[in-house]
Amino acid sequence: MSGPNTDYDPVEVTPLKADQVEAMREAALAAIADAADLDALKQVRLDHAGDRSPLALANREIGALPPQARKEAGQRVGQARGAVNQALAARQAVLEAEHEERMLAEETVDVSLPTTRRRRGGRHPLTLQSELIADLFVAMGYEVAEGPVVEAEWLNFDALNLGPDHPARTMQDTFWTEPADDHVVLRTQTSPVQARTMLTRKPPIYVVCPGRVFRTDEYDATHSPMFHQVEGLVVDEGITMAHLKGTLDHFASQLFGDGITTRFRPSYFPFTEPSAEVDVLCFVCRNVEPQSCRTCRGEGWIEWGGCGVVNPRVLVACGVDPEVYSGFAFGMGIDRSFMFRHDLEDLRPLFEGDVRFSSAFGTEI
Amino acid sequence: MKAPLSWILDLVDVPAGTTTEEITDRLTLTGLKLEAIVSPGREITGPLVIGRVLTMEPEPQKNGKTINWCTVDVGDANGTGEPQGIVCGAHNFAPGDLVVTVLPGGVLPGGFEIGARKTYGHLSAGMICSARELGLGEDHDGIIVLPPDAGEPGQDARPVLGLDEETIEFEVNPDRAYALSLRGIAREVLVSVEGASGFRDPAVRDTPAANDQGHPVVVEDAEGCPVFVARRVDGFDPAAPTPDFMVQRITAAGMRPISLAVDVTNYVMLETGRPIHGYDADRLRGAIVVRRAREGEKLTTLDGTARTLDPGDLVVTDDSGIIGLGGVMGGETTEISDTTTSVLVEAAHWDAVSMFRTGRRHKITSEAGKRNERGVDPTICEAAADRVVELLVEHGGGTAHPGVTVVGTPPAMPVVEVAGDLAARVSGMSITEEQSVECLRAVGCEVSGSGILSVTPPPWRPDLTDAQDFSEEVIRLVGYDKVPSVLPTPPSGRGLTRAQQLRRRVGRTLAGEGYVEVVTFPFVGEADLDALGLPADDPRRDLLRLSNPLNAEAAFMTSTLLPGLLRTAGKNVGHGTTDVAIFETATVTLPHHAGPAPILPVDRRPSEAELEALDAALPAQPLHLALVGTGDAVSGGWWGEARPVSWADAVEAVRAVAAALGLEVSASAVELAPWHPGRCAELSVDGEVVGHAGEVHPTVCQAFGLPKRTVAAEVDLDLLIARAVHLRSAPTFSSYPVAKEDVALVVDATVPAADVEAALREGAGELLESIRLFDVYTGDQVGEGRKSLAYALRFRALDRTLKEGEAAAARDAAVALAAERTGAVQRA
């Protein structure tokens, strides 16, 4: 260890003179200021504030002074050491900050690099649409009812007032299973779930039934042998067509936007009487200058589904007393609703399984 | 149903100035939905005028054809008043004839623009038109020659040709059979369009009384054929043309004109709704007998099809045998031909159910059948037959035979009791009883009483049978658009069921794992199962067959989701998406062969036993989850190499799903198609097998157009969801220091790691906090047929710091048990 105090003479007490202490202090401060990095500062600390630094040695000399001189010398050396330590700490902080800044700068990355290492998953838009619709009704107090896809003929037809010779049976081109006299079909509608619900629950009944249904339609841009329906059923005391209208207006506004209402047109379904076709106000043009609207094709309204007051014959077959209860039912195509809600003209991408299609919708719609 | 507007307005008056759209808007609101308004002339623009041929000079051409160079007077329509020079290839006209001329600037159907052009050495300025060129039919043998009194040269030809005629196409619901006639539509106009009046019912006419001079008819089955009316026209000219108005109307209604006799029967059917059949009277042998067919009887119908009849079919016979399938289609032997001079007209009322069954049985759809199976007014047989006779006599030059055969009487309409306030109660509108009565009478019902009304529907409304049917009639006339919008107030619901919530959770978990959900059709063929490599006795080969599949190659409901998913993955790869991870949740069909499902009564609730029998007859339909992955699981990039999918990804995806349900899955080796025999895991929860996962057999990959190393899994989601942990207890864990011990064990390569781990866990006892396999080594250092498994064990007690040596003792106990159970040797 070497230091600048080579002229130290223990016999003399001159080093404690003011100008000498001042010189030590100035030398130390100058060295601190000159320290360019943390390593240099470390050496400066040893040289000017270490045990063998001039000021430390001077401090030791204080004891050798006459008592009357000790106080003054002690103050002088103490102040000098304090100033050096402060300067060291300050320089240390500055150099550390500079060091960190440099290190961080060196660690800079290109944050625009691609980060996707794993594929994104996604859920099928029809699943999401079904859940969205179910949630709208659950929020109103409904429950979600379910039933089998391969269904008994009686539940798909007879119980719904579609007797074996009902002309309307030919409206729904049915897949039959073998052997033919087993009376088992692929359900053509989700209505058998309504029948099952009435057979197993006591009114009041408020349910929706989303699900897959099948018809012998050749697969093309607007037809599919398998598609998805959501039906609703309410059986309670005093239920009227007005309640049906209110419910569908609410449904329409929740699914398509505030102010979107429905329109009823007389129609025919064996399970409802009176029956109606439901049109929904076009949510794009809102029937204001519809001529150029692509969504409703100039109609101002979009055909949405069917509905009606539950035929008392259906109530009877399902064990509900039509003298006490009345009900309404409605049914919409989930696929169809999705198609016009999301501007899809050809339904086939829904069933082709191209991951680019489903991925586009992520996990919620 | 297509109805020419002029025909409708022949039968009912609407206020002057009522537009077609106003009429169709009202009809749509009351239940006859507008499909389209079509007009044959809608595609024709520009000058289409009457012309008079002044001169025509035949000019033979080199190509063998002869053209006519004509001058045609078109009045002032061409702006000059000079005759128009036109080249015409037809020859069926002469100078002086009135013809239809389109002048330059006109456009004919198909966007065919007419100009003046040089042809055959002349400047031909326009065209003389045939019916086909104007879209008026197929006739292209010659040009249209108008009657001499059609009009003056230069007049617009459209009104003369009926090109201005509008035809309204309606969608007719099955309960509205009466609207399959002009009579029914006109009646709907009467009740729907404000101010409509003057309904002239074409089925109300004076008809001659029945007598015994007509053709003898015996009806053996009065239920199947309650009314049979026969009339005869003799001396009919089979060559007589059908009048233009009739051709135009029949064509507009979508039927094909054939001959006067046939056209008249169709015309009257369209007008009244009553199907009519005409027989060549000279080819009838003896009395007509109506009865049910006998087993094995045969008939060749006039579509040329030889049919074997069913005892349910109603047939018309004479001494020669069966001559027609009653109400559905006539037979060949008595068909009206181009030599027929005597026509026997049949107007009969048939049982609708029999008609429906026969039509379906023989796959016959005809205009007559369509009406008969939906129900026709039984009271108008005589009027309809009389109308046919009238038209045949008027246009075919025949004479009406005095004989009038009428067998049977129309069934009476039922009287239905309807509460006077029913329409109000059903609709939620304030409809008074008076309003209801008024509406019911408007649609033709007879109504008496008050409070409880006695209502007799009109004979053309066989669909009105229940009280509620009458409420619909009232409400539709009051207006569906007036039904108020009121929200009902359901009781508090219970939200989604737990299973419904968990199914959503499964979908979200897999999406989070990078899988994309797809929806595929559940139809498969045996070839699909062959492609999966399923052995002959695999239970998944027991499939539910469809009687009427769209595609014979996919005639079954699938028992596994894998064919659809593998095919879908293959399609994605084919589209250039090489990294694919997809999943599907759907029910599969596993037949019990326990049918048939009973057809239960509908006049009461079935008993529990009956309902159980229904369900027992259905196949099991468990909800399955399947997934397929191919290509890279992690892409390559600036971060490093890509990682291809492996069998472990398929197992891990199922584990992720199980974890989302609070379940742990254990895996053990199994050989099962379509998986790689050495890379298939049987997955169990608490000892119950829930599914399989692993690498797909390379042959199967190839069959589905997928690269080798594609992975797949299929599990029974119902089983998993049924086992899902509902209420989990909160965990407790130790805050004392952890003691770590690593061990490396050498075992036979065939020993499952899961067995080694299970032994270690059990041997280590309750101080063991966790165990992790961090390395698997095979190679020289452990010897042929051996592998080294390196485990990191962590020990900790809940209530204290472990004492020196405690962890080591537990480790030694673990190793000892592993050695005992699996032959494991600790690696030095």
TrEMBL record, chain A:
It is found in: Cytoplasm. Its EC number is 6.1.1.20. Mg(2+) binds at E273. InterPro entries: aa-tRNA-synth_II, aa-tRNA-synth_II/BPL/LPL, Phe-tRNA-synth_IIc_asu, Phe-tRNA_ligase_II_N, Phe_tRNA_ligase_alpha1_bac, Phenylalanyl-tRNA_Synthase, tRNA-bd_arm. It is an enzyme of class 6 (ligase). Binds 2 magnesium ions per tetramer. It catalyses: tRNA(Phe) + L-phenylalanine + ATP = L-phenylalanyl-tRNA(Phe) + AMP + diphosphate + H(+). It holds the Pfam family tRNA-synt_2d. Residues 135-349 form the Aminoacyl-transfer RNA synthetases class-II family profile domain. Its cofactor is Mg(2+). Keywords: Aminoacyl-tRNA synthetase, ATP-binding, Cytoplasm, Ligase, Magnesium, Metal-binding, Nucleotide-binding, Protein biosynthesis. GO terms for molecular function: phenylalanine-tRNA ligase activity. It comes from the Bacteria. PANTHER family: PHENYLALANINE--TRNA LIGASE, MITOCHONDRIAL, PHENYLALANYL-TRNA SYNTHETASE. Belongs to the class-II aminoacyl-tRNA synthetase family. Phe-tRNA synthetase alpha subunit type 1 subfamily. Tetramer of two alpha and two beta subunits. This is Phenylalanine--tRNA ligase alpha subunit. It comes from Nocardioides pini. The gene is pheS.
From TrEMBL, chain B:
Residues 734-827 form the FDX-ACB domain. Its EC number is 6.1.1.20. It is an enzyme of class 6 (ligase). It is found in: Cytoplasm. It catalyses: tRNA(Phe) + L-phenylalanine + ATP = L-phenylalanyl-tRNA(Phe) + AMP + diphosphate + H(+). Keywords: Aminoacyl-tRNA synthetase, ATP-binding, Cytoplasm, Ligase, Magnesium, Metal-binding, Nucleotide-binding, Protein biosynthesis, RNA-binding, tRNA-binding. Its cofactor is Mg(2+). Its main location: cytoplasm. Binds 2 magnesium ions per tetramer. Tetramer of two alpha and two beta subunits. This is Phenylalanine--tRNA ligase beta subunit. It comes from Nocardioides pini.
